Every structure is written in structure tokens, then in C-alpha cells.
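Quick log. Single chain, no ligands specified.
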Amino acid sequence: MNPLYIIPTPIGNLEDITIRSLNILKNSDLILCEDTRRTSKLLNHYSIKKKLISFHKDNELMMIDKILDLLKTNVISLVSDAGTPAISDPGSKLIKKLYSCGTKVIPLPGPSSITTAFSASGLDGDFIFGGFLPKNLKSLTKNLINLSQINKNIILFESPKRIIRLLNESRKIFKKSNLIIFKELTKINEKIIHLKPEDSLPAIDLTRGEYILIIENNEFNNDANNYSEEDIVYKLNELLNLKFSGKDSIKISSNYLGINQKKIYNIYLKNFNN
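-> predicted structure:
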């Protein structure tokens, strides 16, 4: 059984691909790709002619057995539309299946919008990658609240259609945190926008491309002395309305506000435990 090659492709500028990646693509019999048109543009740029197989989130599961069979006699590479495959893109289910069958998977280093954005953020330390958050507003808010409990910077992906909503919801939850917006990385119209909590949101191009949002999570720097009982009740009520349990609402409020859980528990009993 031949191995499967995981090939990162440019996130914008077609020159951002490694020599090794190009050589493996040239030597591949088949290339699995999300959008054959996008991949053809890259391959044509480098005069590579190969058979492309459509492989996307809607057909990944049904294609796995076929790919396993093809690997017996073919060298196959997996690419995504842009960046490293299987990260917020198809491929993880296939790779997991290959490992369970004892088939080798060979990943190549290369372009990644995650590391590209973080390298230009000016931030230090760790980060957590949240990918695309749920489309449902209540689920989105719950996810953001859960992420706010982790003392790390946060990287998110979003589409132009939903980026304004994500920015607005992030502002509500990360009240003391700076936001950094990345648009069209490595392209001619590349934009990097730094926003402080007091800054107005910028005009957003809703027509094309994906956005990357980095949240510099400063919520753990809260001064507990600044919060009144009314502030604590407001935070508890917000979490309870999102269907967090009383126990989880107390814990999250304690982390978020920097206040002892026992104090918040007593306020919870006084205001909600009827």
C-alpha cells in the first residue's frame, strides 16, 4: 500500500509552495482536492498535469473505501483549496481510517493561514485554534464564552457573511481584549487591522475571501474589586439564559470576573435559587 501525502498549498500567493511539495505533486498519480478548479489553477501555474479527484466535506466518508483501494496501485496526494489539508478542511476522517488500516501518512510542512496570521500578530505565548464556530447564534455565544475561560490567545476562521456578527459577539464577551483581523493574507489586497476595546469596528468587505480573527485574551487581567453584585447577577443571568447549568455559570463567572466562587455561589443562591 502506498502512503498518502498531505500537501499544503498556497493560501493566496501561488509562489508560496515548497520545492518538495511540487516534486511530490509531479510524481503523484492522483490528487485529491476540494475544488478541482482551484487546484487546476495551481497545477497549471507550475505546468503539472495530473488526474484530479473531487474530495470535499460532502463526499469524504463515501470516498474513503475507494481511496484505500486506489492507494494499492497509485501514488496519491491530498490538497485543500488553500493551506494545510485536514485543518478546518476535509481529510481528517480519511487520515484516521488510514492509520487504523496500518497505511502510512506523510505530512509535508508548508503554508498555513493559522501560523502566518499569528506570526504577524505581535502576540507572544500560546494560542488555541477554534476554527469556524457554529452558525447558530446561541451556540456561537456559548463557544465564545467557553473559549474565554482558557488563558490563551484565540484564533478563529469566519466567512465574510458572518464576520460582523462574530466581531460583535466577541466584543460582548471579550470586553478587555484586543482584536486583530486578517483579510486576504499573502494577496495584493492583504489587510491586517488591530482593534483596541474602545475602537469602532472597521468597514468590512462582505464579498469574498475568508477572515481570520485573533483575540488577544486579556479577560484574565480583570480586577475583581471593579465588579458590583449587580454585575455578577448580570453575568450569571447571561450564562443561565444560554442554558449553562447553575454550577457551570458560577464557575465561568468566577473565572471571567476573577471573583471567588464562594462569593458568586452566595449571590446565585440569593438571586436565582428560588
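The chain has a mean pLDDT of 92.
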